[in-house]
Amino acid sequence: MSELQKIDCHTHIVNREIYSQYCRSSGCGDYALVMEFLPHMAKENMPDKSWSLCDGSERLFLCPSVDIHGDIPKQLKEIEKKMLAHPGSRVVGLKIFLTYQAGRADDERMSPIYDFAEKHGFSVTFHTGLPSLHLPNDYDMDGSNARYVKNVALKYPAVNFIVAHMDDPRYDACLQLMHDVPNMFTDFSGAFEPGTKVAEDEEGTIAEFSHAIHQFPDSYKQIIYGTDFCPPILLSEIEKYDDTIKKIFEEKQFRDIYWHTPLRAYPKVAEYLKKKG
Fold this sequence. Notes:
The protein has helices at residues 16-24, 50-54, 72-85, 111-120, 146-155, 171-178, 197-200, 202-213, 239-248, 254-265, 267-276, and strands at 7-11, 31-35, 60-63, 93-96, 123-127, 161-164, 184-186. By secondary structure, the chain is α/β, with parallel strands linked by helices.
């Protein structure tokens, strides 16, 4: 698999130190999407410099976060201003921290986000399911359920929606909801966080992922590669995701997981790479 190009669709490479650690890691992606943290998630050892880091980078793409408890239209206008101020930041989507913030994807007040995404050709990535052990959160597990994401995916067929973390631990239901909804995608990024039940039983977890994915023969076409890389919150595994992919998928499907499906899930990435040649 080493010869395959890889787009890491879910990282929190939010500053230069984390980026350096990522680049030094064996098996890191050729390109990576940076999910900006919400301001209140910042830690002393984890300053978020996503905009300046991504500006002009050849390998990084940016997904700014939206605080769903704040003034959403105001934040979207601010993102547009930052895009003008940082023309090389290569914004490709938006990140919404469900579970961490109480709320549902199909709440009416979220509609401006999806209108904005449709206007700019952005994809929308949701945190779904269990949260990190190392970030403040509202623990709104029901609100982050993938069934609410499906509602907006059907309402906005021109926008791609990524159900990050396969709605942990609702894996089977997640894939069932996504089936035959072509603008929904998922990953199993962040799976190996130390101290979690998932990390304590890696083989059992991989078996659960496999069972969920193999409910339908074409589910692999909606799976994207992501690692959730962010050492300050103990997310530093990369090779384990390659090992997991080897255990779940056929070799002929690897290029889809690492490259073709990410380009479909994030069409702005494909647009930027096409310009690059």
